[in-house]
Amino acid sequence: MQLSVVIPLLNEQDSLIELADWIKRVLEHSNYSYEIIFIDDGSTDNSWKVIAALCQQDERIKGIKFQRNYGKSAALNTGFNAAIGDVVITMDADLQDSPDEIPELYALIASGEYDLVSGWKQKRLDNALTKNLPSKLYNWANRKISGIHLHDMNCGLKAYRSEVVKHIEVYGEMHRYIPVIAKWAGYRRIGEKKVKHYERKFGTSKFGLERFVNGFLDLLTISFVSRFGKRPMHFFGSIGIAMFFIGGLVSLWLIIEKIMKLYTHAYVRNVTDQPLYYLALTAMIIGAQLFLAGFLGELIIRNSPHRNTYLIAEEINLP
Predict the structure, then answer these.
(1) Which residues contact 141 (CB under 8 A, 6 or more apart)?
(2) Number of other CB atoms surrounding residue 152 within 10 Å
(3) What residues does each domain of the chain span?
(4) Which secondary structure element, helix H or strand E, spans residue 314, and what is its range?
(5) Which of 11-15, 65-69, 267-271 has the lowest mean pLDDT?
(6) Closest C-alpha among 293, 122, 249 to residue 192
(7) Are strands 34-40 and 61-66 parallel, antiparallel or unpaired?
C-alpha cells in the first residue's frame, strides 16, 4: 500500500464526514492505494458513531477508539503501529489542515530525499496574540535547543517514511517533538513544506496557552532523554565525579593550609570552623549522590524496559 493517513481526534463529529470525503477525493484523483485511520481519543460526542458509519461505507477507512482520553501522542503512536502504507501522513481532524497538500508531501518522501517532512503554516489564521506570537517564540526555542531548523515543528500535517514511524515511540505530550525523536533515532533527513492553513469551521481548539510552558519543559525532557536516556551514568556520573573532585580538592587545600600555618607558627583556625569546608563537604556529598543516581539509572534501564499501553475499546476494519 502506498499511503496511510493517520488522523487523531477528540470531539470533532461535525468535521469528520467532510474531511473523509475531501481526503478520498484527493487520493483517488492521484490513483493512490491508501487507508485512512481515525483514532478517537476518548471523544464524548458522536465522533465514534460517525467514524463507524464511514468505516461501513468504505473498507479503506479504519477506526480505533480509546476507552478514555490518553492524549494526542498516544493516538499518534497507536495509529503509527496500525499503519501499513509505505508513506504515512498525519493531519488534524478540524479541517484546518488541507488534504490537497498530501500529494506533494507524498512525493517528497517517495522520492527518497527525506525521511520526514513537516508542514509549515507560514500564514496562520489563528489569534495573533494567543497563538501566533507564542508559537514563534516556541519554535525559535525549539530550533536553538534541538538543532532542527523547522519553522513550525508542532504542525499536525507531516509525512514520514514508514520505517520512521515504526522505529520511534511517541508518549506523554511528545507529539510536538516527533522530528527531534526521529533525529535522535538516526533519521536526519528532515525537511519542511509550506502548507495552507484554514480557519476552524466547527468546535473549539483543544489547546490553551499552558501548552507553551508544557511544551518547553517537554523539549528539555526529550533533549535529555534523547542524549542520555540509554546512558544516564554519562550525565549524572560525570557531574557527580566533577563535584566530588572539586570538593575533595578544596578540602585537601584547607588541610594543607592548616599544616603550613602550624609549621610557621601562624594563627590557625580549625578546618571545621571555616564555611569553605562545609561547601566542599556539601559538594562531595552531592557528587556521590549524583554518581549513585547514574548507577541506579543504568540498573533500571537494563532490567525494566518500559512500554506504553493504551486500552482500546473498539477497532473497525483493522486486522
Answers:
(1) 216, 219
(2) 22
(3) 3-228, 232-303
(4) strand 312-316
(5) 267-271
(6) 122
(7) parallel
Distance CA 153, CA 8 (A): 17
Angle subtended at Cα 137 by Cα 114 and Cα 205, rounded to the nearest 5 degrees: 85
Strand partners, 88: 4, 160
Q: Distance of alpha carbon 195 from its chain centroid, rounded?
A: 21
* Predicted local confidence at residue 314, as pLDDT: 86
The label of the residue with cell 520526514 reads 116
- Residue 80 pLDDT: 95
- Which three three-digit cell numbers place residue 265? 607558627
Residue 212, SS3?
helix
Q: Cβ(21)–Cβ(124) under 8 Å? A: no
Instruction: Give the residue from 201, 97, 206, 221 showing the smallest Cα distance to 159.
Output: 97
- Residue 127 pLDDT exceeds 90: no
Model confidence at 177, pLDDT cuts 50, 70, 90, reads: confident
- HSE-CB at 214 with a 13 A cutoff on CA atoms is 10
CA angle 95, 222, 145 (to 5 degrees): 90
Residue 58 contacts residue 156 (beta carbons within 8 Å)? no
Q: How far is CA 148 from CA 143, 144, 153, 208, 215, in A?
A: 5, 8, 9, 25, 16
Cβ-contact 316, 51 below 8 angstroms: yes
**pLDDT given for residue 174 in this prediction:** 79
CATH architecture of 3-228: Alpha-Beta Complex (3.90)
Element (H, E) at 301: helix 275-303
Q: What is the pTM of this model?
A: 0.73
